[in-house]
Design goal:
Blueprint: H1 4-22, E1 38-41, E2 44-48, E3 53-64, E4 67-77, E5 82-92, E6 98-107, E7 113-121, E8 127-136, E9 140-149, E10 164-174, E11 179-189, E12 192-203, E13 212-213, E14 217-221, E15 225-229, E16 232-237, E17 240-244, E18 247-249, E19 254-264, E20 267-281, E21 287-303, E22 308-317, H2 322-325, E23 333-344, E24 347-358, E25 370-380, E26 389-400, E27 406-421, E28 427-444, E29 460-476, E30 479-482, E31 486-498, E32 540-551, E33 555-566, E34 588-595, E35 600-608, E36 615-624, E37 630-638, E38 651-661, E39 666-675, E40 680-691, E41 695-704, E42 714-723, E43 727-730
Antiparallel strand pairs: 1-3, 2-3, 3-4, 4-5, 5-6, 6-7, 7-8, 8-9, 9-10, 10-11, 11-12, 13-16, 14-15, 15-18, 16-17, 17-19, 18-19, 19-20, 20-21, 21-22, 22-23, 23-24, 24-25, 25-26, 26-27, 27-28, 28-29, 29-31, 30-31, 31-32, 32-33, 33-34, 34-35, 35-36, 36-37, 37-38, 38-39, 39-40, 40-41, 41-42, ...
């Protein structure tokens, strides 16, 4: 019923059209607006001067702007100023709505009117029918014995009841209040009433936001018991609103949930939070009864001027399992951040502060870093001599912990790169780079620089600096071959990197370079470590080749294979054992991408042991099949970094999803995630959905095998029902 308003407007415009038609023979009495010309076509047009009535009959067609009125007969009484249309009346509106009626009577001031046996086909194919309609006071329209449905009628039996329809004894549209009201309304499925309400109302489509209750959600849970969430939306002002959505549970009381949003001329912010008094299972296994549990999730962005902006993110919770227990979030780390940043041309500056909260069982948040500040300044020049480009990066870091190592760092990097293309098409790039870093660390253990929390008494205060220059020459030569069937490109690439043999970096604390991974994406990076605390030392040569091909302009494929060789040995502790670059000759990295035909897309990335070509890392992503039957597959294998390692060992996991659109309306899917090393299913899901032009129902069953104190492995079942233009209900 959300599309009623255009229909009322269309009904009102009939009077304007008919008034224009009447002036076709009586311009001296009723002047026609010149900017709204009307055209009339009829078998016969008569003007009775004694009665003051203009009548058009027989295939009457009146065009007024983009609106067209059709009727068997149209008359206009100049004295009573009443317009009537009868017999197969229809009005086509520019919006695409079409109004049908048997009889229409309106005053020419549009304030009073009556319409009989009205039927409306909306532009979205929804349908509305009513026995009669009455317009009064110029802003109030009432429909009697109304039926509305967005569902298509059965082609074989148009008289058959639609899938669902809404019936009401009265539907009143108050244009002044901009609200639509229903009296004695029924929701019917296949003609059978399933829901009744004596009264309800909602804003008309001209209202974008209005306070009121939103669709509820109900459910059941082993820990919480019966669940019902009933949101209330409060439109405080055009630029701010509040949603209050308490969760009522039978076992753990009420959870207060709210979200406040505020749009400002120079930015916006959003604050979401919750709180409750409930039981909590501690890491020791004991249960704390009736304790406060809650969370806050807030963010905002504000423009200071055209170049500078500031913003914040605040994520916090009272305990490890709260967010998962109440289905707010599955994040394992919560990040709070404040930022001031500026942009100008190619240049960027930022001042950040970070705080972290881990919500896993073994997280000790006293050891979590507090970063304040983290400052960055990045400058990139315009093209210079020979199209060369130079850049400068400055970075300052202050990192503190309640327990463990504190680090202060000041870093600067200057680089210059020069591209060159030789006469035969070879592509060269020369890069010179120098990085300088200064550190001040407290409670630092040089025997284990990756450990931010060394054993008591093993740490000391350290001040250290480093200057690290590098020079690199990169060469590529693309070869292109074009045939009748196949166009292919082969591009060999070689890069030589020269730098000092600074392989013993144990005197420098490692905060941001611990997550090292060697693959095809960073083979040609000057520094293959993430972050700034570790640098890739020595002299090396990186080499590889890329092949790509296109078959008949449709099917595509590409492949890359590469390796690296270092000219000198490096310290055993710099690169992790099993990382692939701990020896002079690196492992082999590569990727293969295949898209031979429509609905087949494969991506395989790998790292092979240089000695025996055994797999050290495999990633496979596959998407195969049309919507009628589609397979999605993600596979990951990571070999243990150290063959003697027993804590983690090899990791192997597969995530698969099979889905099928059985018909135009029905679809199903089955998916699951399994740990192949532990031979254990982590999660399984199955779903069935029906969706047509007016109705959607989705059912999803999920089995999770994850458990952590009061978050236990469970089976859940979700149902979502959507009535087009009416609303939705979920469990």
């Amino acid at each position: 019923m959300l599309r009623l308003v255009p229909c009322f407007f269309a009904l009102s415009l009939i009077a304007l059209l008919l008034a224009g038609a009447g002036t076709a023979r009586a311009q001296e009495s009723i002047p026609l607006p010149r900017d709204l010309p009307s055209l009339i076509s009829a078998d016969e047009v008569l003007y009775d001067q004694d009665l003051g009535v203009v009548t058009a009959s027989g295939h009457v067609e009146i065009s007024h702007g983009q609106r067209v009125l059709l009727a068997d007969a149209v008359s206009y009484n100049l004295r009573s100023k009443v317009v009537t249309a009868s017999g197969n009346v229809s009005l086509m509106d520019p919006s695409g709505d079409v109004v049908f009626a048997d009889y229409v009577e309106l005053s020419d001031d549009l304030k009073e009117g009556f319409i009989k046996d009205i039927r409306i086909l909306l532009s979205d194919r929804s349908r509305l029918a009513a026995a009669s309609g009455l317009r009064t006071a110029g802003n109030r329209t009432q429909f009697n014995r109304t039926v509305y449905s967005p569902c298509n009628l059965c082609k074989e039996d148009p008289e058959k009841e639609p899938l669902w329809q809404l019936k009401a004894d009265k539907v009143i549209h108050d244009q002044e209040e901009r609200v639509i009201k229903y009296r004695d309304a029924y929701l019917e499925f296949f003609g059978v009433p399933v829901l009744y309400t004596p009264y309800f109302e909602h804003p008309d489509p001209t209202v974008k936001r209005k306070s009121g209750f939103l669709a509820p959600t109900v459910g059941i849970d082993d820990f919480l018991g019966g669940i019902a969430q009933i949101p209330y939306y409060w439109a405080i002002a055009p630029n701010q609103d509040l949603t209050v959505a308490p969760i009522f549970t039978t076992k753990q009381g009420v959870v207060a949930v709210g979200e406040y949003r505020h749009l400002l001329p120079y930015g916006e912010y959003n604050i979401e939070g919750s709180g409750t008094i409930a039981d909590r299972e501690n890491s020791s296994g004991s249960v704390s009864e009736d304790v406060f549990r809650g969370h806050i999730d807030a963010n905002g962005t504000f423009d200071l001027d055209k170049n500078w902006r500031t913003g914040f993110t605040l994520e916090r919770t009272t305990d490890d399992t709260y967010l998962r227990r109440y289905n707010f979030s599955n994040d394992s780390v919560l990040v709070s951040n404040a930022v001031l940043e500026g942009f100008e041309g190619r240049n960027y500056a930022a001042l950040n502060g970070y705080s972290y909260q881990g919500v896993r069982t073994d997280d000790d948040n006293d050891e979590a870093p507090i970063v304040l500040p983290l400052a960055d300044v990045n400058f990139v020049s315009e093209p210079w001599i020979g199209d060369s480009v130079y850049s400068f990066d400055l970075n300052a870091l202050v990192l503190s912990r309640l327990e463990g190592r504190n680090t202060r760092r000041l870093s600067g990097t200057a680089s210059w790169s020069l591209p060159y293309t030789d006469p035969i098409g070879g592509l060269y790039k020369v890069t010179a780079r120098v990085a300088a870093d200064g550190y001040r660390a407290t409670d630092f253990d040089s025997s284990d620089p990756d450990n931010p929390n060394p054993p008591a008494g093993s740490g000391s205060d350290e001040t250290v600096g480093r200057i690290f220059p590098q020079l690199a020459v990169d060469w590529r030569y693309p070869w292109v071959s074009r045939g009748e069937m196949l166009t292919q490109t082969v591009e060999p690439r070689v890069q030589v990197v020269v730098g000092p043999n600074d392989d013993d970096q144990s005197d420098i604390p490692n905060e941001d370079s611990q997550d090292f991974e060697f693959d095809d994406t960073n083979l040609f990076s000057l520094n293959r470590f993430p972050g700034r605390d570790r640098v890739d030392p020595g002299q090396r040569i990186d080499y590889g080749f890329t092949w790509s091909g296109t078959l008949n302009g449709r099917g595509q494929a590409s492949a890359f294979l590469g390796q690296s060789y270092r000219f000198s040995d490096i310290d055993d502790g710099l690169f992790p054992a099993g990382s692939g670059v701990e020896d002079r000759l690196s492992d082999i990295v590569g990727r293969v991408h295949l898209n031979p035909i429509d609905h087949v897309n494969l991506l395989y990335r790998f790292r092979l042991d240089k000695d025996n070509l055994q797999s050290r890392r495999n990633e496979l992503g596959a998407f195969i099949g049309p919507p009628a039957l589609n397979l999605g597959l993600n596979y990951l294998f990571i070999a243990a970094e150290d063959e003697g390692e027993t804590e983690f060992g090899d990791r192997e996991e597969i995530d698969a999803r099979v889905s099928s659109e059985l018909t135009d309306y029905w679809s199903v899917f089955v998916s699951g995630t399994r740990d192949l090393q532990l031979n254990k299913t982590l999660e399984a899901r199955v779903g069935v959905a029906y969706s047509d032009e007016c109705f959607t129902i989705e059912t999803i069953g999920r089995r999770s095998f994850f458990s952590d104190r009061d978050v236990s492995s469970d089976t859940s079942f979700f149902v979502r029902i959507v009535f087009k233009h009416l609303g939705e209900v979920g469990t």
